[in-house]
Design goal:
The structure is a homodimer.
Chain A lengths: L12 E5 L4 H13 L5 E4 L8 H6 L4 H5 L2 E3 L2 H5 L4 E5 L8 E4 L1 H10 L5 E5 L8 H4 L4 E3 L12 H17 L4 E4 L8 H18 L5 H17 L4 H13 L5 H4 L1
Parallel strand pairs in A: 1-2, 1-6, 2-3, 4-6, 4-7, 5-7
């Protein structure tokens, strides 16, 4: 487990304003750790981040809860930050830029010299206007307008997730194949020739057009699926085990 | 509330394989509705999607639970789909493409002619290999490798969120200003002239360099923050109320 002294302090500070339920504090800690965010601040929480309920709900993200800092007011919680975003689900007559979670987290990544804090309001009411107006911009997560009420920890999860995706820049697609390698084209060609010969001998190709059609389909299948050596061995095993009738020998 | 007959069927089908807890089925329904996904399938769930616990946890996403379809096996649940993704947190020696949630959902958006299903495994174990190998590709959500265990509904939320962002293509930034308009440049110039004159008269500019420095800063502030007419009126109100000493009159 990460210890307090080695806790990374990159990434925005997650500030929960007046959270009501210990479970939500715990689940938020879990979501933060899932996404590599370590700094939690709580403004006048109703329950302790170290309560049994919070610790249980964090599913092992104790480190976040143990290091959570508690403040009496939002102003004090944000005092050492130089840019604040406020998350809201409803618009409320503020004159303010509104960013998606995607856009806001890209801003955070683009400006590593700044210390960012992100405010999340209490479960039932969301942030008060007195808190929203302290923010440089609003984060509004684009959701189904017919059902946009998110659980507190899920709102944190989505923002933290957006940040982490940009922070790590994970490859968008990979191919896992364990210890085997892709079969090279020579092996694939040999394999295709083997089945084509076996089919030829079995007498399945009654008409030349049928032969061409089947051969092209088989070649497409076994090249498109980017077959590995391990899989090729399985296919040879199957083909050799099957007793494919050899009509050419019989005739 | 959306009724069954008008339920949109765009977007992938969310398939929970052997979910153990009714709460997670309910929370998943909520996450789906948050992100505009309506089609839930359950493979041999331990508890009913219409149980009290599931309905309570759905926070009003009953419509998803009422229309959830139950199947005895994964094969039957995916039978009418033509592309399946399996979500996993651990790699397990499969020879298979791995996509991020971002990449996989872009594929879904790019291929509207296909019916996609996304498999999510039971809470403790995740999907069995027997289910994973039915999938065209694996979705692996990039998360902190030191703490990548997600709650079931949160895994669904992240995938559903990624899909919805592409489905709606929300503007990444906006500016809300209610019924007021941005003040035009003439009004801003007049306002700046007003404060500069008042400051001039107050005797604050003891040195020409100081004057230039302050004036440039003030102009930068009030142009950068893209001020509205409503806010300009507030500023005029403040300035007119303040009794700014008029040294030039006194001298």
């Amino acid at each position: 487990m990460t210890t307090s002294s080695t806790m990374p302090d990159k990434g925005p500070i997650i500030i929960l304003v007046n959270p009501q339920l210990a479970e939500n504090i715990g689940m938020t800690a879990r979501a933060m750790l899932n996404c590599g965010l370590y700094q939690m601040r709580l403004v006048a929480p109703k329950e302790s981040p170290l309560s049994e309920k919070a610790l249980a709900a964090s599913s092992g993200a104790d480190i976040i809860l143990q290091n959570a800092q508690i403040y009496p007011s939002t102003e004090e919680a944000i005092a050492d930050c130089d840019c604040i975003y406020a998350t809201t689900a409803r618009r409320r007559g503020m004159i303010k830029p509104i960013y998606t979670a995607n856009f806001a987290t890209q801003e955070i990544i683009n400006q590593p010299q700044h210390r960012y804090g992100i405010l999340f309001g209490p479960e039932r009411t969301g942030l008060h206007n007195d808190d929203v107006c302290l923010a440089n911009a609003i984060i509004e997560i684009p959701l189904n307008p017919e059902h946009c009420s998110l659980n507190l920890s899920q709102a944190v999860l989505l923002v933290a997730y957006e940040w982490y995706q940009k922070f790590i820049s994970a490859p968008q697609q990979q191919f896992v194949k364990g210890k085997t390698e892709f079969a090279d084209k020579e092996k694939i060609t040999l394999f295709l020739k083997t089945i084509e010969d076996k089919l030829e001998n079995s007498g399945i190709f009654t008409q030349p057009e049928k032969r061409q059609h089947m051969v092209i389909n088989l070649r497409n299948i076994f090249t498109r699926c980017h077959i590995t050596e391990q899989e090729l061995n399985t296919l040879y095993g199957v083909i050799n085990h099957l007793n494919i009738p050899n009509h050419s020998q019989k005739s």
